[in-house]
Fold this sequence. Notes:
Layout: H1 9-30, H2 37-44, H3 48-54, H4 58-84, H5 87-103, H6 105-108, H7 113-119, H8 124-130, H9 134-144, H10 153-164, H11 170-174, H12 179-194
Amino acid sequence: xxxxxxxxxxxxxxxxxxxxxxxxxxxxxxxxxxxxxxxxxxxxxxxxxxxxxxxxxxxxxxxxxxxxxxxxxxxxxxxxxxxxxxxxxxxxxxxxxxxxxxxxxxxxxxxxxxxxxxxxxxxxxxxxxxxxxxxxxxxxxxxxxxxxxxxxxxxxxxxxxxxxxxxxxxxxxxxxxxxxxxxxxxxxxxxxxxxx
Length: 196
């Protein structure tokens, strides 16, 4: 009987990083439901048994993947705001965020049946862990850009959150106009209204 391979902690981290990369690629292309453990293992060149020594369930890998994606997006927004440090830079980070959301609906649209089938399988503790605190991220981005609000932070956050939900109206708007041009104009106007 063949013995199980023994992996060092460094080996495990390399395999986990590769599985997260593959998970993100497959999630973007096919969604959660159509991404199988077998496919991920074949692509990562590991056995299904190895997968289960690293992740008790498929959902554990997906949860870890979404945590890394959220961290990466937050850092990208903060980096833009630290680097540019103006209202225009803040508006640019919002525009980039929308384009990221738009380009990967399986990954970011939490209202799709595919995404809902993922979250309904998660225990409450995991849901809390992956729950992204957008309000905190908004405050950090404004701080990173050294911007001063003209209104209560919760109101400013609500306005920008409502702006980002226009992705749901993209198809309707795109029938009569350039959706991204409309969004960009709204972002510029709203950021100028929100910050001094």
